[in-house]
Fold these 4 entries.
Entry 1:
Amino acid sequence: MAAFGSSRFRQPTTAIYLDPNPAVRQRTVDRLRSAAEWLTIDPVSTPAALRDALANATERTCVITEYDLETTDALSLYERVKASDVTTVPFLLYTADGDERLASDAIATGLSGYVPRGVDGSINRLVAQLRTILDDAARANGDEPDADPHRSDPTQQALRSERARFAALFEHSPDPVAITVQLPETDRIVDVNPAFESMFGYERAEITDRSIDDLLIPDDDEPVCITDAVGLGEVVTAEVERLTTDGRRNFFLRGFAVEIDGDVLEYAIYTDLSEQKRRERELERYRTLVDTVGDPMYTLDETGQIEMVNDAMADTLGTTRADLVGNHPSCCLSDDDVERARETLQMILKDDDRQWRTFEMEFEPVDGEPFLVENNVAPLVDEDGTFAGSVGAIRDISDRTKREQRIRRLHEGTRRLMAAESTDDVARVASEIAHDALSLEINAIHLYADGTDRRVSSDAAAGGRSAATGASANSSQNDGDDGVLVPVAMTDETEALLGSVPTIGPGNSIAWDAFEAGEAIVHGDVRHAENVRNPETPIRSEAHIPLGDEGIFIVSSTTPNDFDPETLTLARILAANLEAALERARRECELADRTAELERQNDRLDAFASTVSHDLRNPLTLAAGHLENLEPHVDAEGESYREEIAWALDRMDDLIEHVLTLARSGQRLTETEPVDLDGVVDRAHRTVDPSLDLDRPEPLPTVEADQDRVSVLFENVFRNAREHVGDDVTITVEPTDDGFAIADDGPGVPSTDREQILESGYSTSPDGTGFGLAIVSEVVDAHGWSVTVGESEAGGLRLAISLEG
């Protein structure tokens, strides 16, 4: 299209006015027609209608447009128009949605002017802008604009106001702006705005009249000459690097040139790209990370479609990235897992304190079985908080799950292990655990046994498992008296492979070496071991794990190097638990044996005591009866002899009673119960003599004991005090830190005799039996307690019983 001609003011001027809002469009048209009668208005509602109108444009055509055009905006529309043949049509932006940023962008894009709608005098400003544009166009073509009778002072005022507004836009633009003038040899800075001062670090006064090339352009960069690049009326854009007082920064440059009073002024508007560049570098690093990280990663868009996957994701699923991108996650997940992922994202979005969550799901590869993975998922949101998709990092946890299952089964099996009663049962359960929980299908457990320390049952020791050839040759016969390792438990696979499992004795044996050294021995291929006896054994991998002094745990495989570190670690854990269970079972068996033997001893003692009581008391009873029958026939002289005989018989009866009590008190305890000592003391006091003075300053403890025997203890101490001190004795019973003490206020016992008073037969009284405190000692020993003889605060006897032994 031709440039504007010199006949510009002799012909009507047409303004194509574009606004999609019909009410605003009509109101603006009416006001323009009223303010500028010389202007012909052609209203249109769409960009398409504008393009049709421009097809018929003349050199007297200009465009007035709203910014928001519903399907696009005025700046984008201008760029498209500029790209066509219609390059000299002036565009004015007349909008109610503008601000300084929009005005700056409009000027940088190349629009001819900007007038905000809705402020006082906006129509007059718009008309003034049109006149200015038309005048500039006439001068550019060498014409002088004709006098216009319609110009009035208000129009001039509007023009001055508009110029002031553009000055304000320059001052308040958020982007740095520099105005330079091109001189023959160099450039010179005319002005900069405050944003330029802040960004570049120069005061306006110190930079004015200096060369922008010398100050801002790095030595390794070339300046952008805006006028030479595009000529007047066009906009140049470029990404540039400029020097600031803080160093180099990246900017997006938008530049245009205007001619004012014969001088060409270049406007350079800089938009800082440093943050953008930093984000781009971060994005590039992120892309590199995503592409190189070993774990599968993906992103979904806001509709849930796969937007990006890395190579690890594609490899894991057995497909390509191209096949996954654009697809729905249901291509590799079940519907339930897709729904679980959706619910997880919803939970994150509702929880301000959580930015990501982890959940488990099953991957379904193209070929192969589904496997369990862990998805660490996070939503993606825009700056305004709008959901924009999600990102996830996948980790294959199938191995971890299997490991957790093995550990859980090992833990459950250990409870069974600890519940087994005999050592044979413990070994059998351990072999089953190794088979079922650890997949150690070939295993055997040998327990140590000899003539004096038998740790296995007689059945296992003599179970016909003599030495056998064909095992891993880690066996030997032992016909002497030395201890041997007897096989007590093994799997069916072990017997099927080896035939029979041998007893292992001292000698050139891997198993015995490990047992004797107390250290595990692991062979990746047992055929290459130095002391292997059968190089043709079917066993290849083998581990010998000692069980302390209890025996050895052997696991085997027909595959070389078949035991990974994790399996060996779990096998050692099982061995440690097995050792503890064997020790427990052995102790419990020994305790049961001792308890049974004690019960047999007690039964024999009871039978002996009953026999002694019967055989001794029957003659005494007969003698006492005859003595009573003699009483009428004895004269005064014989009465004294009869009384001596009666006293002797009574004493013999007391001795028999004390002997029986002593015998029963010394029996080992088989059962105990919580005993309230205060109650026992009260009953003993009433039994012996309620009139005795009993002092109990503090409550006594409750102890685990045999109540009948503890009653005998207190009764004998109380009787001993009454017999040796008298009826006026005061007895004190009090708790101590480790038990209780019983004291009296009698004459006490010399320190030289204190060790003897607890012995049978010792008594300081001619009428005493010497069994009272010996019975106390037997009761104390039967409970595993201890008694200390000392002196009370009153100088009498004090017995301190310690429950700690």
Note: Residues 1 and 58 are 8 Å apart (CA to CA).
Entry 2:
Amino acid sequence: MYLADDSALDVVGLGDVRISLPNGSVWLLEKVRHIPDLRRNLISVGQLDDEGHAILFVGGTWKVTKGARVLARGKKTGTLHMTSCPRDTIAVADASTDISLWHRRLGHMSEKGMKMLLSKGKLPELKSIDFDMCESCILGKQKKVSFLKTGRTPKAEKLELVHTDLWGPSPIASLGGSRYYITFIDDSSRKGIKMEKTIPRTPQQNGVAERMNRTLNERARSMRLHAGLPKTFWVDAVSTAAYLKNRRPSVPMEFRLPKEVWSGKEVMYKDRSSVVSDVIEIDQKKSEFVNLDELTKRYSPVLNYLLLTDGGEPECYDEALQDENSSKWELAMKDEMDSLLGNQTWELTELPVGKKALHNKWVYRIKNEHDGSKRYKAILVVKGFQQKEGIDYTEIFSPVVKMSTIRLVLGMVAAENLHLEQLDVKTAFLHGDLEEDLYMIQPEGFIVQEKENLVCKLRKSLYGLKQAPRQWYKKFDNFMHRIGFKRCEADHCCYVKSFDNSYIILLLYVDDMLIVGSDIEKINNLKKQLSKQFAMKDLGAAKQILGMRIIRDKTNGTLKLSQSEYVKKVLSRFNMNEAKPVSTPLGSHFKLSKEQSPKTEEERDHMSKVPYVSAIGSLMYAMVCTRPDIAHVVGVVSRFMSRPRKQHWETVKWILRYLKGSLDTCLCFTGASLKLQGYVDADFTGDIDSRKSTTRFVFTLGGTAISWASNLQKIVTLSTTEVEYVAAIEVGKEMIWLHGFLDELGKKQEMGILHSDSRSAIFLAKNSAFHSKSKHIQTKYHFIRYLVEDKLVILEKICGSKNPTDMLTKGVTIEKLKLCTASIGLLA
């Protein structure tokens, strides 16, 4: 391109440009030349004319039109005709005087209606009403020719005459599954209701209600089209249209506002708390539909999910710099980089030929501290999915401490009144030494000047690397052996060290540590050793571990393990925090099977939008940690994750309602003793589909549950004796593991007592006599006989009504549930 001074500017590209117009639509300009050095954006009048546009220059103003649409307008400045395109709206308040914006806020109200509101002083921020054609209105308000009108006088009293009509069915179900809506229109005001019948299948006689349905549909369609939302949002759009309809001038009521006539209170549109703040523009990435108290109370999961997705944490580096807390995120990134550089995590070098540098990203998290404060944390994470097995890594397995180990040790703390301290390893994965040569690009925002072409050769492990957990564990394990700790064979993340009159136990879960001991001086000495080797944060007395609150009362010698806060978050995540509580984990009316799986395409499409698998995962974590009372029902609903149906989802919601009613239920260690006892039971062919049986067991230490399970057996059994016998061997293995573990911790048990309510199974385990009804049982299941003969397991009969494992196999009554939970230390 040549300028007037004969200088030339380079055209670097050719493409299409979309310009947002004042009326909210988009103007597409094709074959636009990209000239970076040109200071102004120029539009060719000749090109517009060739494309069929009309350009009008009158009295120092100009505008471009195509048909009835005004595409652009502006004023003459000097010898140039200038225009400007509106920038994206960030907040509603920034565009309060935009006429087209108010047109959309008011549900695409007509120009006449807006002028009437302006004349009544309802829109004080606008000076005049004059807007261009709205494309969404054209698309949304097309209609057939009207019937001839007949004169009618409005009624004088409220509710003297009410027009009503049911609209539907909608071809598209809403997000909540709705297909109908009903309208009620009061003809004027208040006393006495009179019913006037109309001729069947003659909607023209019910013109008021029919016209109202059309008005609501037109406005809802216009709002939805403008927002670019799918048809499933039609219910929200119609609700918003009804809300706004009551706040616009009504012709039959001499242009008064229906809301003012009904309530006697003045409506002002400048009240941002009711109209502006709730009718939010789609540019803000929130729901555009109002959700005021006056709208119909109905179940709407979408808005809650939208709120939950806004966690206030940036997704990338650019977002962090634009965030309102950008200074805190910058400080967090600086702290992370200081730790990485101080730990000599990498060195800058040139990338060797044949090697590939891994990419990375910043991950931002807001952590809630024990004292209620918030900590801003930035973590540099390598994109480990780019690694290739055998080249960039070999072994990746790394152990973590078992939940049953944590509960067992907490039972010891309560029984012997031990000290319980907690430590957190800062940047734990950075301490691991790498065995492979790995390279990474420099972190975004911290690229060294004049060394932009260099990459980072990793010396230490980083978050995101596939081998990072394993390398950290190997480093920590070596250190613990050097300072005299023994790793337990029963759990490789449990370390113990014995002294003359005391001992210390350390539990490791990735970067969280629990330290238990009777001598606080020795515990403090271990803390110093750990802090000297690794960057540590001393959290003092343990109050929370893995989302479980530790509530300790040393005066009464009790220790409680609670997940009430976690359960509250789960209820909120699935919009069940206002649900009606129930008293049992599984209702007696639920009979679940695979035959209930979706049969039609519509059912499958509906269930694909239900967060079934996510809900099961959330429930499973509560069950594994502190809630054995839901073990059976969670096991049942998890069998249908591949093809769940509505009945299965209703069962999941029932479990959530049960948790809502038992928020304060927690495991309570009373410190009574360290006696280990086991309870076993099984149902017979309880699974409707496979006819397999369920093994259930629970082990208590000092009367409180430390290990439990409710699992489907791998074989189909032929009798109740066989199913109880098979269950006993599975539980016997758990008994051996717990006995060995307690022995390693210096708490050797005299005998392992296993309670069963099946006399025939106990007899079969104690006597190896040949019997025609048991000859088919596989050899591996006779292992229980060896355990009984060597007195490693003592089988004892327990009355079925006193066996706490009943709740782990089937739905039970409220009274039975209370008995079962109380007998294993699960108390409210």
Note: The chain has five domains: 13-82, 99-143+154-309, 319-543, 561-666, 673-822.
Entry 3:
Amino acid sequence: MELEPASSMPSPFDGSQPSSESHAIQRRKRRWEIAFFCFGIALAILLAGAILGYVNTVRLIDNHRRVFATQQVIAELEGLLSLVKDAETGQRGYLLTEDKKYLEPYNAALAEVPAQLDKIKTAIADDTVQQERMPGLERNVADKLDELQRTLDLMNGGDREAALKLVDSDIGRGLMENVRQSIDEMQQFEHDQLRRRAQQSETSFRTAIATILLSATLGIASVCVAFYLAVRNIRQKAKAAAILAEQKERLHITLTSIGDAVISTDAAGKITFLNPVAEQLTGWTNKEASGRSLTAVFEIVNETTRATVENPADRALREGMIVGLANHTILIAKDRSERFIDDSAAPIRDSSGQIVGAVLVFRDISQRRSIEKESRMHEERYHTLFNTIDEGFCVIEMLFDDAGKPNDYRFLEINPAFEKQTGLVDAIGKRMRELAPDHEELWFQTYGQVATSGESIRFVQEAKALDGRWFDVYAFRVGQEGSPHVAILFTDITERRKSEIERQESELRFRTLVEQVQDYAIFMTDADGRATSWNEGVQRVLGFDEEEFIGQNVVELIFTPEDLQCGIAQAELDQAAAVGSASDDRWMQRKDGSRFWAAGVTTGLHDDAGNLLGFMKVMRDQTERKRLEDELRQIAADLSEADRRKTEFLATLGHELRNPLAPIRTGLEVLKSAQHDPDLVVKVLSTMERQAQQMARLIDDLLDVSRITRGKLELRTREIKLEEAVRSAVEATQPFLDEANHTLTVSLPDEPVTLNADLNRLAQIFSNLLNNAAKYTPDGGHIALTAQCEDGEVIVSVKDDGVGIPFEQQAQIFEMFAQIDRPLEKGYSGLGIGLTLVKQLVELHKGSIEVHSDGADRGSEFRVHLPISGEPERESPAELAAIPKRKKLRVLIVDDNKAAATMLKMVVKMLGNDVTTADDGEQAIAAAEEFAPDIVLMDLGMPRMNGYEAARFIRQQPWGQKMVLVALTGWGQDEDRQRTAEAGFNHHLVKPAEPSDLQQLFASIESSDA
């Protein structure tokens, strides 16, 4: 078989065609035109549908945005109400407890209210109706906060009764109701808006659906017609394809071997050939594309506008010239993937010069365009950031001396904020030492280190040469290793440093507010109560994720079984459906079954016709608030009980102090008449001494309780025998036992028991228990003190056959001011602090105490458990030696109470000293200078000049620097002793001063002088 000469073979670029095919070509051309027309109609219909769909989608999005804004306004209003409630709760807590820790929620809420009001204003910025309501809301909130502040001002001013009276009045509730009413009105308006926008969204959605269906139907019909015509045309064209097969084969090897994509068309713009690269880029195979319009296969759009770009082959066929592609052109492949392309199209002419087709050559430049685009974006972002950031920014070139030490730097680039931040003008090209000669060396060394090491650094430093400004600086090297360029990002934080603490507090409040807002569970249901929406708050508050929650009956999920059984849940929904909303504060349950106190509101959603569409619920976990409220109620009850006990204590204290005063006063009257009856005088004095000791014991107990409560009491422990403490306690209690004709039996272990204890305090424990037993046992009773060792501890029991303790009162017998309730036996009195003191002293000794009684009139037993120690310390012979005889001292007594001064003068003289007195501080100074006493016993509270002032003056005089100053006062707390020491006193005695205390003091002073 011989091949025809190449010149006689048809070519795709050859204009020659058999005359019999001319009419077929015209028919195919006509069918392609019809097909193009159908495609155009389909495209127009789809475009119109897309435009309508877009418009309706925009409406839907806008409606959704407005619905979200409405929900946000509701949530922010609810947040404002919660803040006002928190402020009110904190205020009431403080008024009830006087504990300032309850002002923390008040202060936090007070600080957050302005920000919350600003959020509401921002949320309603586009709503003129709500804006008109906003001043009323702000006014009501301000009135309520002012009312809260007035009560706190009264409280801080000491008028707690007036503050509580103001709280109990209807003013606060009225103001709170005004706030609630304003918020309810604004929320109701938002709910109405929500219903209207829901109807608009539904209308837009239906319109969009109808538009899509219509455009899809017409588009499919047009495409089907076009497809039919195209298929028919392709079939006709296939018959003629065999004629051109040999000619195409000549080009096939060449076109398939090049790296660019090539598409050839005939004069009508229909594809005749695609090489493999073109197949890859367009997604069409040569077989699929042959006979198709180039536009159908080679679809190109503008990168920016997405508008269809004219096919360059069409232009080449029309104008007969080489056409390059426009910039920013994208090729859309068959699978709708997109590529950037580049290159050109050229016409194909026959031997006569007639255009018989076109060839399109293009290449994929997506990677290059991506790199270029990314580079441009980086550059644009850099310049935008560089010119718009508030922080100062500059690039410097470090300058080094011959030794490589940084000594200066030059500014290469600066941004507009640079001059404002530093105050340096026209800095580009200038050196820093030229602009600020006194700039600190630290800056040069730091930037030099960044340039040489390549390690970035962040630091805060003051630049004294720049008006003392403080800067927060971040510096990093620019370029490769060895580059002297350093980029510096900095901020003038001079003012910020002054308010750093305030900023941190503000950030803390802001974070707290955000966390509170995020703790809201907000969801919607249909009319049957099935969940249709979900937010993160549902997960946080209720524990349900979205899949678990959507579609479920919310009422059954979150309401407690008892509320469901009582119909409370359904009643809430019925109320929300009927009146628009229903608030609730009740226990709810989470996914895991745990319960929490929920505060929220359920809102009924209706369409314009009033039909119920569903519900929206906003709720938050208020368990902590509920706990605080319960605690406040308990605190109020405790305060009431404490106030009652305090009143009883004060009445009892007066009674207890009058009891010993009565016999003392009577004894004084007897002494006046019995001066010649020594036996009677001795008896009366003995009685008066016991009553005085009883008064002193009462006062000492009160002081000890105060010291223990404040943690000021310290034990002076040493190794002692239990027998010593018991003996001391019995000796102190024996007069009271004898007076009531009680029988006391003491039983101790045969072997000595050693304790590490404070002898005086341990004796005080046993003495108080014995006194208590004697007081609550009728005359002639029996009291037993026993001790036994068991498991490394000694158990000391004090048991009596007295009035006993009722079972219901045994639990609180050791509480402060606790009294046994025995109304028929008023003779059993006391302050109610003795057992409290005993318990605290026992616990300070690392022991414990317990009480047992079979009930009223059955006696009682107190058991003290104490740890046993080693052998007791032996007193050294020096401690047992007799006290040597003292020399006579010169003593000055200063007291404005002349009777007290006279009695004290008699006691001091009886101790063998020379004594003189003064009535106030001024007389004391004169007497001290003239009398030159060894010791000054001085009262503190005196007219004209008090004891502190007199002591300081005496210490400033040369003659008074070595005098021994002793403060004699009724105040004996640690802070009182510290204050007298600071005033110059050497010693501190508490009135009344016992003769033994004075004798010991005089002996210690005499020994120190020796």
Note: The radius of gyration is 51 Å.
Entry 4:
Amino acid sequence: MTHSTPGKPDSNGSEQPFDPDAFETLDSGIRPNAGHEVPPETIDPGDFDADASATLDTSMRQRPVADPMDSQAETVDPGKQDDDQFEIDSAYNAPGMPARIAGFMIKGVVGAGGMGTVYLGRQDHPRRTVAVKVMNPGVTNPRALKRFDFEAQMLARLQHPGIAQIYEAGTWDDGSGGVPYFAMEYIAGSKVLTDYANDKKLDVRQKIELIADACEAVGYGHTKGVIHRDLKPGNILVTSDGHAKIIDFGVARSTDSDAAATMATGVHDIVGTLQYMAPEQCSGDVHDLDSSADVYAMAVTAYEVLTGKLPYTVSGLGLAGAIKVITEDAPTPLESVDSRLRGEVSTIIAKAMSKNREDRYRTGSELADDLRRYLAGDAIVACPPTLITTFRRVIRKNRGVVAGIAVMMLLLAASAIAGVYALVNSNRALQAENTALEQQAEKHAMVGELMGFYMRDTVGSLAAISASPEVREHFMAKNMEYLNKLLEEGGDDPVLLRVSAEGLWQMGHNAWSLRGGNRGNVQMAMERWNEAIVVLERLLIDNPADIESRMLAIETCNSLFLAAMKNDDREVAAKWLDKASQLSTTLQKGEMDQWNLLMAILRNKAKLRGGSADPEEDETNREMLQLAEFGIKNFKTDDGLPDLRVERNATLTWNRIAFELSTNGMHEKALEYYQRSLDSREAMMAGNGGDNSREGIAMFRRDVNNSTRYVSSELIFLGRYDEALDILENKTLPSIRQIAREAPDDIRSLADLAKILTEIGEYQLQAGKADKAIVTLKESIYSWGLVAALADSEIIEDLGSTRETIRSYGNLIEAYFTLEQLADAEQSIADAIEMTGQAASKWPRNERLMSLVDRVQKFKYDLQRRKNEKRRQSSGD
């Protein structure tokens, strides 16, 4: 088996599989101020509360018993143990502990609180484990007895799977007089809500589902006239099979009018946990509470479960200071703690935590319903839907019919943009006065911002919608229609001209992109970008100092360069690169957005030039490395880390240098650069770069996947096949499959899958695993065909896809030859020859492609030779 030199096809047509530029192009780039293509992947459970353990498993299923406070599960079946087997670590023996309480055998103390003690017991009939709560004799005054008696009656009314059930209540004489007790449900294997969420590593959606379940149970209590008044994570347990259970209604009160008079806890006697108390609850006036106080507490609980933090910091402030914070200060916004929670989740929690009870959901059920609307992708009631929340909802739900979405988008565009058109038009009468002219300029600027939002951010939000290219195209076309009207009114207004160019650039990007079902129409992209350049050149002639127009012009030239390279038209690519370089002479590397453009120009120069004899000493490469180091050193985030776009730009530079080193056979050195890039990208993915959105995380994963491919490629060249295949088969391929499953209409994700299968199949073949290679390569060829089908085109229309498919065919044929499966080889050769014939006529000057075409032709003759040899052997026998 001969090994290839990267970028230089050898005699069998194999080639270096990882030119980073082939995978990290415009579609995966990070564009400043763009709403699309955003780059990418300890909770205090509360103080110990005796009542937090007062639960029992009623289902009689064989589940481990555990202390809900320390979650130490046992293996004893609570329903079937003998007396000498009934031992549970969650309970401990205490001096003076009774042997029995009424009909319950007591085996230990679960916990003790101010009002009483919770024992672990076993009921004789029916035979089951229970938690027995007994009031302390010292607090059995008439008021406390009324409260305890009411609590037992109230709990008996609550028959809900999400609320710990009370089984029996009564009075027990411990020798000092009668004291109340009740036996309640003990939940085996349970954990407090925060512990469960952490231990199970629940994602945001799973946490919200669990919170919604708990809210529904609280809401059930509200329908029975019961307010809990002490909701917090420690009073919400989660069973071993993931169901929430509300416990500790010991401080709850009834909303029934007759109960209010008998059950008062005492004015200014605050019994709830302060951080979870509604502002009105801080007064301690139980007559001033309603079910919205529980809604507030559940919102704080949700806040803590979702972020690991509380919305207020009250430690060390004292009671008066803490009450002042809760009643007067605004909580820390949810999205500022975790950006994944921005938008509708944050809106729901903010409504539930409103300081004005009238603005909250009225019951726990209402809060649960809105959380479930969010999960289902339906409109929430927390606030009227805005344009952008509507888009996000459609993206999450991903069910919409294209025609319906298109109508919605066009109506929104028409109403919003026609409004600003009318706004500009209405100001004509004011143009006679200087002040009116200033107002007109402000209106134009506002129009520019609004149009930028619709043309850039909105289309970016739509990108993840399945089967939405037509929607985006119609939406952009309608935007341009209204913009042209505004341009007629505005004449030479530079703001509107620049917005027009921005819109044209975005339309080109929309055509270029392979995300969200896009088909990647390069020709259409180039047409829009050429139109944008015409507008931008007009602006720069009038005002050469217009830095915004200059930067957009450079970015557009870079886009046209990449499109020309994709079409294998290096002459046109050179023209656009030269234009970008000329425009960049006034850019300042100390400005991050301008630095990014300078880095892109240098990388494009290296890409156009191809390889170099000494990559580390090459002038362009040295400039790239120096500029990358400058960016890492000078552009920092608030926490002192390199800015995300800067660090990702640096990894692209390291990958480019590594590729050129590999091209020159310097694989150890190339591996060092690729490994540096991989380490950096894994670190970025671990922190998500501050971007926890699905798109952001997916991009980080894609970057890491690409880097593992580059590293594996060098390991292959160094003969470390097992190491490389282990990484690719067990790390990279599963990750890419998962991304493709998550976005089945995303052509780029499917193309990534086809690519990795192509490379793995080739490496398996080189490692002497021809049988495995056949399976992998057949899937690769199928995947490339699927990419073309999704693009509504033929594979042959794209150079990269054509080249990779022919490459897979070549390796598949070689694997068949290795195993002497000549009939299968013959069929694959016929299929490959049909494709290579079309490719050779379409791209006759592409050396890498033509080398692969030659390889297939050689296989044709090799097949005939092998068949002749086989016939001679048969004749000789």
Note: Residues 847-876 form the longest helix (30 residues).
